[in-house]
Design a protein that fits this description.
The complex is a heterodimer.
Chain A (H helix, E strand, L loop, with lengths): L1 H39 L4 H25 L3 H22 L4
Helix pairs in contact in A: 1-2, 1-3, 2-3
Chain B lengths: L1 H25 L2 H8 L10 H15 L5 E5 L8 E6 L15 E3 L16 H9 L6 H23 L3 H5 L8 H14 L1 H14 L1 H4 L2 H6 L3 H9 L18 H10 L5 E7 L7 E6 L11 E5 L13 H14 L5 H28 L9 H30 L7 H22 L2 H26 L4 H7 L2 H29 L19
Antiparallel strand pairs in B: 1-2, 1-4, 2-3, 4-5, 5-6
Classes of the chains: A mainly alpha, B alpha+beta.
Chain lengths: 98, 513
Amino acid sequence: MFDAIVSNRFRVASIAARILTACVGGYAAAAALTTLLARALPIDRTEATSWGLLLSFPAYAALALWAFAAARPGRVAAIIWVSAAASAVALYLLGIRP
Amino acid sequence: MASIHGWFGLCTGWILFVMFATGTAAFFRYEISQWMMPEANVAPASRLQAAETAVRYLSRTAPHADSWTILLPDDRLPFTRVFAQAAPKPGQMRMMSHEDVVLDPVSGEAIPVRATRGGDFFYWAHFELQLPNLWGRWVAGLCAMALLGALVSGVITHKRLFSDFFTLRWSKGQRSWLDAHIVTSVLALPFHVVITYSGLVTLMTLYMPFAMSANYVQPTNFMERLYARAVIGPASGRAAPLPPLAPLFAQAAARWEGHAPGRVVIGRPGDEAATVTLARSDRELVTARIPLLRFTRDGRITGTDYPPGAGTSSAGVLRGIHMGRFANPVLRWMYIGLSIVGTAMVATGMLLWVVARRRPKSAPTRSQRLAERVNVAVIGGFPSGVAALFLANRLLPIEMPSRAAAELWMLAAAWASAAAVPFTVPAKRAWPTVWAAAAFLYAAVPIANALTTDRGLVASLAAGDWAFAGFDATMILIAACAATGARLTAKIGAKPAPQRRAARTRPEPAVDA
């Protein structure tokens, strides 16, 4: 009986984790990565910002679908959350474009 | 992938249906506005004359406003629309007003039109969902993002894309719904992907503002370059008369192949530091990033517009593709046809979701029943609400307070009544009832038009008034489709479930008890 409860809870938790990684983590990673791109692209400031914005949606879709579809949720979650965090840190260190 | 597609679709499908339906209607925004303001039967005037008379009106009614916006008439909307605005709060962008005053372009007088949101209701509802502040835009954005994910996952799920595209199996229950969903999705797949992505791009500064904050201390600087907004400088405090518009229009025509501007924005009217910004008509170029010409009060061109590079131009073109304002009538009808296919894609997806989960031997679960009922309430109910909006436009007393809001309340009331049907009548009768109600309401619209105005279908056909005639004809067409739907769903409900071969085990469409 406990096996059923534990495995059910485990399944719900793992689905919830996937949803969180895909929807929230995907948004964070897509936003952070494309913002980093916009910040770092050595082209005109306005154009770099436009490109960063334009690419953010395909990036989000790709990351979210990958998070749902990947066989190993732990690996995907790690990659998505770490890249989001790393990009955010990099952006903080870079500061606003002078 | 298939279950992601299904869940994305289920969570957002009902809202997406409303977004597609209002978006389809928004392609006809100006014609609907014409129909909903039948008093505004005006003679055509040149855009310069319309601008000059509008300035006279605004000088009288809003002499101390921070800015005047004059939307000049064109062949789709023959009257002038104006609104005056106060200065936006610091750091905020000037937003387009939801309400404007309708002026006769010849005389500059306000036409006593009935208070109504007109076709603009569909435009705003499409991405604001009638919610306050920015909440509607966020909900719409989430649904659009989910749709983008659903489109990609749908293509991945559907590996046999092209062979199955030519498969249409009628009267086979779930298989038929699946085929209908696939056909509507694949038939217009490029449209669906582009319209979804371009819709997100249209509001991208809201959904992903971070790149702006990383590159700009003041993000509005970027938005002014992205959108080519009229920049209104600080007031000098000294009064001065307004500049004449004719020489400014002439300068614009010299640059814009003889075309007159589509919009005039006057900043700080009556002040010495007044600026006049002429915007090119959005009918002439695909890009929504419309070229501007800014003039000082003495008619000098001031401040060169930022020449957009590839990124900013692409964003402008995508926005323009989404709104389709550049489209000539043939192309606009294609847009609408594809948009209807998109609406059908969402609707068949929602119907498929319910049908696919029916099990032949067991009764539907409570959540399956709820999903089916909400399907009826939204897919069958919202169209009835829109018909009620048009009926209210004709039938509500002209001189009633808050009339524009009252029309929307009629839409809500009709939708709520239709939504109550699947929860109160037996399941077999739910669909036929809502479709029959929709047919009745839509058929009543041209009748109400003919009885309460002098611009009924016969009169408008005789006068060559294609906006009015087309609107009434479309109402009749929708009524006919709804009536057909009522008949078909009544017949299907009465038939026993079709026999399936036992070789493939798939759930049969059970007749809901």
